[in-house]
Automatic annotation (TrEMBL):
The keyword Lyase is assigned to this record: no
Protein name as catalogued: Methyltransferase
Record-linked Gene3D superfamilies: Vaccinia Virus protein VP39 (3.40.50.150)
GO MF, any single term: methyltransferase activity
Lineage summary: Bacteria, Pseudomonadati, Pseudomonadota, Alphaproteobacteria, Acetobacterales
Organism: Commensalibacter melissae
One BP annotation, GO: methylation
Keywords annotated in UniProt: Methyltransferase, Transferase
């Protein structure tokens, strides 16, 4: 339900009925599965449950403002593939987007998704029960009151559960708000969406080469996202962005604690500025300030993805050095990642257009080849020992490898429960 007297919210509701976002064709599900963050099942297992939740425990997931269903389809397919029980509830107030998610799920023959047309703000009255995990990606920054919505979502969490959130970040969207400002003068919110889109298309066709939007390669909605992408980027009636410190403050105020910023290394300024004196200075700041420094210095963050929990809950991450812990990759197989390590033992890793260099021990290649979501740390160490590495060196080298690859959201570990 849209807010009756809130013209921006009414415009938002109209937008997604006219241009379901992102633009998706259910037929494409026969060709590929779209993978992303938040809400990859392996990320949920690790960043929300610390690698401690049993795979046999049913998982109740809410996708709040599911749009055309990228996160819902990804996680429901991953659950089906690994015979993980539970259900994914797709909530959105636009009928048009739910129709597309249903089409995508039908193509994939997924039977673990339920659909609810309604507003996040109505959740307390929808009687959907509590959830172990809630995804709210690209929605909060469009709502009339982000804090109120966060509070409502928080109340739908089971104890020990968590959320994966994505909100816009300002610096990496440089140029977007300038064009939005111009379009807000050239079109009226009450115009039909098709008329507003026509104005945006004409502007984009003639946009001067000096416009900041033209220089910005941090996103591609206006270039490859079709009508829905262009509309969402430039004509969205309410679009705010949050610096990481602002987002963190909002989370604090809503009694939500951060499990992880995705990817952690992106928020470490020491990967950006390698000068030893400056690195020493960085280390004197707390994690939050370091994250702000990374955001200001990189300048390319157009979104923040964050996993959070209720502040009263504790999270413990499985011990990567316990011999019965089981390491698992997020998505890229270990051998493929190992092949990307340079002869200098540096792993180049890209966050959009920014590439950082991660120093790994030479033995990281060997470890990576052995991670298969079945072998335990103890078994991996036994194999590596037979390859001639002195026993006392193996665990520290593994720990170093694990911590670096975890910081780029690639390698996790679960407890053997
Ligand atoms: C930018 S799209 C994001 C879609 C999807 N989460 C994604 O990341 O691809 C925003 C979606 O939120 C939905 N939405 C906006 N306000 C809502 C509300 N109050 N309750 C439920 N859904 C809402 C819109 O209908 C739209 O489908």
């Amino acid at each position: 339900m849209a807010h009756k007297n809130d013209q921006q919210d009414l415009g938002l509701a109209r937008q997604y009925e006219a241009y379901p976002y992102p633009e998706r064709n259910p037929k494409d599900e026969t060709k590929r599965l779209l993978i992303g963050s938040p809400s990859h099942l392996n990320e949920i297992d690790y960043w929300v449950f610390g690698g401690y939740r049993s795979y046999t425990q049913p998982l109740r997931i809410l996708i709040a403002g599911c749009g055309t269903g990228d996160a819902a389809i990804m996680v429901a397919q991953q659950m089906a593939r690994h015979q993980r029980s539970g259900e994914v509830i797709c909530l959105d107030r636009a009928e048009a987007v739910l129709k597309i998610v249903k089409g995508r799920a039908a193509t994939r023959k997924l039977s673990n998704i339920r659909y609810v047309q309604g507003s996040i703000l109505e959740l307390p009255d929808l009687n959907l029960g509590l959830f172990d995990y809630i995804d709210c990606c690209g929605v909060l920054h469009h709502l009339p009151d982000l804090a109120a919505a966060l509070q409502i979502l928080r109340e739908q969490l089971n104890p020990g559960g968590g959320m994966g959130l994505m909100v816009y970040a300002p610096y990496g969207r440089t140029g977007v708000y300038m064009v939005q400002e111009a379009l807000s003068k050239l079109t009226s919110l009450s115009d039909p969406p098709v008329k507003r889109l026509d104005v945006a298309k004409r502007i984009m066709k003639h946009l001067p080469s000096t416009a900041w939007l033209r220089f910005n390669g941090n996103f591609g909605d206006h270039l490859t996202g079709g009508d829905a992408g262009l509309y969402d980027l430039l004509l969205n009636p309410r679009d705010r962005s949050y610096k990481i410190a602002e987002l963190w403050d909002l989370l604090d105020k809503n009694e939500l604690a951060v499990n992880c910023l995705v990817e952690p290394a992106r928020y470490d300024p020491a990967y950006l500025i390698t000068d030893p004196k400056i690195r020493e200075k960085f280390r004197q700041f707390d994690i939050r300030t370091q994250a702000s420094l990374a955001e200001s210095l990189a300048g390319n963050m157009s979104t923040h993805v964050v996993y959070v929990r209720r502040a009263e809950d504790n999270i413990q991450f499985a011990d990567p050095c316990a011999s019965d812990s089981i390491p698992f990759m997020r998505e890229t197989p270990g051998e493929i990642l190992a092949n990307q390590i340079l002869p200098s033992n540096l792993l180049p890793y890209s966050f959009g257009m920014l590439t950082i260099m991660l120093p790994l021990p030479a033995q990281a290649r060997g470890f990576l080849g052995l991670v298969d979501n079945r072998r335990s740390v103890g078994e991996i160490i036994e194999i590596v020992k037979k390859r001639g590495i002195e026993e006392h060196r193996i665990l520290p080298l593994w720990k170093q490898t694990f911590e670096i690859l975890r910081s780029i959201n690639q390698l996790f570990v679960r407890s053997a429960v």
